[in-house]
Amino acid sequence: MKKIFISFLLLLSCLSAYGKDKVEEIMKKGVIRIGTTGDYKPFTYLNGDKYEGYDIEVAKLIAKELGVKVEFIPTTWKTLISDLNEDKYDVAMGGITRTVKRQVEAQMSNPYLIFGKCYLVRKGEKEKYNSIEAVNKPSVKVGVNIGGTNEIFADEHLSKATIIRYKNNLDVPVAVEKGEVDVMVTENPEAITYEKINSKLEGALTEATLTKSQMGYMVHKDQQHLLNTINFILAELEVRGTIPELKNQYLK
What is the pLDDT of residues 68-94, one digit of tens each? Predict the structure, then answer.
């Protein structure tokens, strides 16, 4: 009974939090809270104890436009939506794929990048792993991060392969380099980034990707004003040339 009562209080707290206008709350508190996984280069990653990456810079720009500070809250791919619903942060950012499921359970911003699924492999092996059929074999070890769309893709399309799951996405490229797995399911921005920073790795199918998707930012499904505000700010930053400059810096 005590557990039920506590759960009821938590539910009331969440309902109360999202009965308010988040934009007004952010302006009043002087801070916007950004939930981010910190494990997905080049969008969000930790350098020591500081978050860096394309979406981290965009978050700072959004905060600047609102005239508030930014606070980064750690989350995971598995708890991305549940943490948002529990009001642990105001906006989720960091290479988040726009999916119907996420739009139903939350709200996604206008897209800012088109990308696709591909593989990260050891140098010299991109021709070996150049299709779903080439990877979907019991002899091939596939690494994925838990809770994201990479795991969903592997389960749906690479079910015959030996799938190894990692809590931290940053551990998967390391596993590829060490030979613990043969292939990492990823997206072309991440694969291209690792090609640049690690001479032992290369992307496979980074141009002729296995899928086509878009990335966006995520807010609670009841916060239309916040979503409109984010979309407005992003459009303004695009017109000013700020967004194109950031994309050239992080995504080219």
Answer: 999 999 999 999 999 999 999 999 999
Tens-digit pLDDT profile for residues 128-163: 999 999 999 999 999 999 999 999 999 999 999 999
- Packed helices 22-29 and 224-240: angle between N→C axes, nearest 10 degrees: 70
Return the CATH fold of 116-212: D-Maltodextrin-Binding Protein; domain 2 (3.40.190)
Domain extent listing, the chain: 22-112+216-251, 116-212
For the purposes of burial, counting CB atoms within 10 Å of the CB of 108, is it exposed (0-12), middle (13-18) or buried (19 or more)? buried
CA dist 146 → 30, 194, 250 (Å): 34, 20, 25
User: Any idea of the CA torsion for 225, 229, 230, 233, to the nearest 10 degrees?
Assistant: 170
Give this prediction's pTM: 0.87
Q: Does domain 22-112+216-251 have CATH number 3.40.1160.10?
A: no
